[in-house]
Design goal:
- There is one protein chain.
- The chain is an alpha+beta fold.
- Helices cover about 25% and strands about 25% of the residues.
- It has 6 helices and 11 strands.
- The chain has helices at about 5-10, 95-100, 140-155, 205-220, 230-255, 265-275, and strands spanning about 25-30, 35-40, 70, 75, 80-85, 90-95, 110-115, 125-135, 155-165, 165-175, 180-185.
- Strands 1-2-8-11-10-9-7 form a 7-stranded mixed β-barrel.
- A hairpin with a 2-residue loop joins strand 9 (about 155-165) and strand 10.
- The radius of gyration is 31 Å and the shape is extended.
- It starts with a helix and ends with a helix.
Length: about 280
């Protein structure tokens, strides 16, 4: 049975970032009548190095944005509501209570509903959030490992639903070495149709096909995904540090050197004190 190897075997990717120290979600993993207390940990480290601020180039101060009403000027946070733009000249106001009634009930559970072979997953649906699942306590370990072993033996993935950030979320859960991995999915209804290609009778020749497959075969060997780690943040941090060091050196050079007092100058106050 074919599988999405890059997803199904995360242990083949060397981890460069440390494991998450704190769970980002705590709840239960449900399959049939079985509920397993679990904790979810971020599988991907978030990067903060690229969070740059807008500043005034003249003085270097940060740019601030004030929330204003075109009729009444600046407004406080407690004066701001929400509305839907029905047309250019019509906004439909919605109260917090009305919007709260639309939120899905959150029972803090990931409910596994369907099972399927991993090669059936359309990778365009991956929404970008990945979590490691682990038992929440020692009592949950045996059942958690039972589910992990069963999914591994059947070589199958699970499709489920949960609530993250007050929104109903479709997820896939699959077994990996010593853990279960969860990926959030986009709403399948939002997937766009592929752009069709008009071949116009121009099918590839056998010679061209052989040449292309040789190129593929030449690069078809084992590799480490860590070799493709993005170095952008490191380069940015290095640039920032060099500018900080440059400012420190500039300040140090700008300070006047202290004069060393001679022994006679240091003794004068003492002589004057004796005379007094």
């Amino acid at each position: 049975m074919a599988t999405n190897r890059m997803l199904a075997h995360p242990e083949t990717t060397r981890s460069l970032a440390p494991a998450a120290s704190r769970a980002s979600w705590v709840g239960t993993l449900k399959i049939g009548n079985t509920s397993i207390p679990v904790k979810a940990f971020a599988a991907i480290a978030s990067s903060s190095a690229t969070q740059l601020h807008q500043v005034h180039q003249g003085c270097g101060r940060r740019i601030s944005y004030r929330k204003t009403c075109p009729m009444h000027g600046p407004v406080n946070a407690d004066q701001i509501g929400r509305a839907y733009e029905y047309s250019n000249d019509c906004l439909v106001g919605l109260s917090d209570d009305e919007l709260a009634q639309l939120l899905p009930p959150d029972d803090k559970a990931i409910t596994l509903e369907r099972f399927f072979p991993g090669d059936r997953l359309d990778l365009t649906l991956l929404a970008g959030r990945s979590l490691f699942l682990s038992p929440a306590n020692l009592a949950a370990c045996s059942t958690f490992l039972l589910l992990q072993a069963a999914l591994m033996q059947k070589r199958t993935w699970a499709l489920g639903q949960t609530v993250f950030s007050q929104r109903r979320q479709l997820v896939v859960v699959y077994p990996a070495k010593g853990t279960l991995l969860l990926h959030t999915l986009h709403d399948p209804g939002t997937r766009r149709a592929a752009v069709s290609i008009d071949a116009n009778g121009n099918s590839p020749s056998r010679r061209d096909l052989r040449a292309m497959t040789k190129v593929i075969d030449a690069a078809n060997e084992s590799f480490d995904f860590a070799e493709y780690a993005d170095q952008s943040d490191k380069r940015l941090v290095s640039l920032i540090q060099s500018k900080i060091d440059g400012k420190a050196n500039k300040r140090a050079k700008g300070k006047p050197a202290r004069r060393k007092s001679s022994g006679r100058q240091q003794s004068r106050p003492r002589t004057a004190a004796r005379a007094a």
